[in-house]
Amino acid sequence: MPDTPATLRFYGDLASWWPLISPPEEYAEEAAFAETVLRSASIPVREVLELGSGGGHNAVYLKASFAMTLVDLSDEMLDVSRRLNPDCEHHQGDMRTVRIGRSFDAVFVHDAIGYMTNEADLRRAIDTALVHCRPGGVAVFVPDETRETFEEGTDHGGTDGADGRAARYLEWMWDPDPEDTWVVTEYAFLLREVDGSVHVAHDTHRLGLFGRDDWLGLLADAGFEPTAVAEVTSEDRTPREFFVGHRPAAPV
With a threshold of 0.85, does the pTM exceed it? Predict the structure, then answer.
């Protein structure tokens, strides 16, 4: 079973379909809330590093307020993002190991943090955020689920493109073993080409699942001052918890 986005079709040969599977317009409200959390740093926030930036759909909105540097493991997803965000700096890298060589006022990690399926990898991603976060800055992590909120279930969606292509998907999430730290999401895609032909694709994703106390403890262990912030959303779903790590300001 695949462990990282590097082995997933979603972020490889299917990456060009991402804007139809999960359109940028669906990110506006969440990005606006993320902006308010990023501004909770004790220093002014101007430069933001986004780890696991994917197709750049959060950056479409966040770049209006911040200078965004985007990092993703998938070159194909970075190509999608570059078309949307040519004014942003892009780097290929793994959030567990990447080192940009400079620090930022804030670090943002959206749902790509879900691909950390064990505590060791989650700790490494948090350490990466700390390394790149200036004293007084903030790191914000947005897992789709926590152990306390997870529910097995299905979802569906997709849109039509202006070029004649269209995509529809079915998502099925379930937990094979409630005693471990990951769950499975199965995706089925129906993809219509410009010529009207339709093909089917399937992808299996393993996603990490950790409890609230796990998150807060790992952030504290890394050197952050941790808090959890309940998302404000108008969508018909359980609000996410944003896990926020404030890096203590440098001594005067």
Answer: yes
